[in-house]
Amino acid sequence: MASADPVDATNPDAVKRTDLAQVPPARRPARREKSVVERAVSEALASGLLTFFVLLPLVGFHATESGTGSLVLDYRFGLVAVFALMVTAGRLVLNLTVWRGDGPRRSAARVPPKSVAEAEAVASPWPRLGAVASALVKPVFFGLAIAYPLIAVTLVGGLGPSRYWIDIGIYILTYVMLGWGLNIVVGLAGLLDLGYVAFYAVGAYTFALLSTSVPINDFLAGHLGEGFWTAWSFWVCLPVSGILAAFWGVILGFPVLRLRGDYLAIVTLAFGEIIRLVLINWVSLTNGGAGIASIPAISFFGIPFSSGEGGFAHMFGLPFDSMHRMIFLYFVILGLAALTALVTVRLRKMPVGRAWEALREDEIACRSLGINTTLTKLTAFAIGAMFGGFAGAFFAVRIRFVSPESFTFMESAVILAIVVLGGMGSQMGVAAAAILLIGGMEMLRNLSFLKNEWLFGPNFDPTLYRMLIFGFAMVAVMVWRPRGLVANRMPTIFLKQRKSVSGSLVKEGHG
Fold this sequence. Notes:
This protein is mostly helical. The protein is 65% helix and 2% strand.
C-alpha cells in the first residue's frame, strides 16, 4: 500500500493547509419551516392585499353626474375592502382544505400502496357509504323533480304565486336536456362541439314553420281535420323536429370526420353561426330578425287549455287557471329529459356507446380494433342533435315565439359550460351543473341586498352581472374540481375481479 506523503513540519504553509482541510465547513442555521396555518394565513393575506390594490382603481372610484351636469367623483373604498376580505377568506379556506400543503392527506397519498386492495381502500375509504349514496342520488333527484310543482305550490301558497318558480323549473330542465344531448357528443364521444345551439334552433324553427305555415296547415288540416291538427300540432311536429335536427347533425358530421381538437371546435362554431345567419337573412321563410310569432299553444293530448266548454278545466271539473298549462309544460319537459337520460344510459351499454368511449380515449386504437370511426362519429352527432331538436321544439311551444336572437353563440357556451362543469360523461353531474348555473343566475334577480348603499347602490341591476358571476363560478369549480362536479371517465364495461393465472393454466394455453 502506498503511504500518504509526509507533511514537512518546517513548511508553515503546508501545515496551515493541512489544518484547514481538517476543519469541517460551517453550517448555516436551519430555517424554521412555517406551519400549515402560518403558510395559509400569509398566502391569504397576500391574495387579499393584491385584490385590494387591483380593484382600487377599478371599483374604488365612481363618477356620477350631479344636478348641474358636471361629474362628481365618489369613493367606494369600503366596497373594495369587502371584496378583499372575501378573497382573503376564500383563499384561507382553500389553503386549509383543498390546497393544504402538509397533513394526513398529502402524506398518505405519497406512501405507495402495498397491494391492490390497499390502493382501493386508500382511494375510497368509505366504499359502502359511497355506493349507497350513489344509488340513492338518482331516485331522490327524479322524485324531487316529479314533486317539484306540488312543493312550489305548497310553499308559495297557490297556483298563481307559484308561476315564477315553476317557470324556473321548466327553464332549468330545458338546459338539463340540452346538456345531456351535448354530453353524448362531448362527454362520451370526445368531439368538441361549439355550435350545438344550431340544432336547438333547427328544432325550434321546424316546429314554428310547420305549425304556422299557411300551405302546410291547409294541407294537414284538410287531410287530418282542422280540429285534430290544431290540437295535436305539437305532438305531430315534435318527432319531425328531432329527425330534421338529426339530419343536420349528420350533415355537420361529414365535413369534420378528419378534424380533431381545436380545428373541430372552429368548424362547429362556424356551423352554428351559419345557421343563425341563414335564419336572419332568409326573410321569405323565417321572417328574418322579426322572428315567428303566433305559434299554437300545447294541448293535453288533444284537449286545449281553454276556459270554454271542452277545455281542460271543463273536462276534468276544475276551476279554470292558466297555471294548468304551465304545470303540464313542466311535466312535458321532465318527460323529455327523462327520455334523454334513459336513451343515453341504454346506449352507453350497447356497442355504439362503447365505441363512443373508445373513440374518446384513443381514435387510433379504436381504428386498430376494427371499429368504424366514421359511423361512430356520425351517430354521436345525429343522436345528440336529435335531443337538441326536441328541446328546440319544446322551447318554441313554451315561448310561442322564436327569433335568431335566441340562438346565439352564448347559448352554446352556456350548454358546453354545463357539460364541462358537471363532468364530461356524467349524467348526474350535468344535471347538478345546470341546476347550479341556470338556477343560480336566475336567483340573482332576487338578491335585493346588493342594492344597499354600502355595496353597489340602489341603481345596481344584478342581472347585468350574471355572466361575470357565471365566469367566477366556472373558475372556482375548475380550481376545486378540475374534472367537473361529478367526474366520470370510467368505461362502461370492465373486469370487476382480477383472476390470478397459475402455471397449469399457462401450460394449457389459457394464460
